[in-house]
Amino acid sequence: MKFTGKAHKYGANVDTDVIIPARYLNVSDPAALAKHCMEDIDPGFQERMRAGDIMVADANFGCGSSREHAPLAIKTIGVSCVIAKSFARIFFRNALNIGLPILECEEAADSIQAGQEVEVDLGTGTIVNRTTGQTFQAKPYPEFMLELVQAGGLIEQVKRKVATQ
Predict the structure, then answer these.
(1) pLDDT for 148
(2) CA separation (Å) from 74 to 9, 94, 100, 132, 162?
(3) Are 41 and 13 in contact (CB under 8 A)?
(4) In degrees to the nearest 10, what's the CA dihedral of 96, 98, 103, 104?
């Protein structure tokens, strides 16, 4: 599974309250959530964001409240992958549960800058900064995680498995 897009760069400790502000937690429609993704930390994000773009961040991305709204808003706005030095444990699990690809790679998180073109291969764990030519190595996704992401998340994967039985 490969993705290519422009990088949107963030610092450390990006919490779920700035990914999707609490005032929108009464919204259940993913498209409505996406309209407010990152608005408190990056007001121009929605205008710059293009389907397939990639978020890059420092350590502890997705810390704070354990809300599934945060990775859902990121996925629905069209982010193809999030690369960070590390992720908050609950965000990590929520992201995978809804099929949002995430990769931990310190070197990539340090080197990739906003606006640079990035290519990610989940199967090999390879991250290429197409702008600079640098290549980074993250841990590749095992087959079961690739299947989970390709299915669109845990619920969709279970639905597919039940339908084939």
Answers:
(1) 87
(2) 14, 12, 8, 26, 28
(3) no
(4) -60
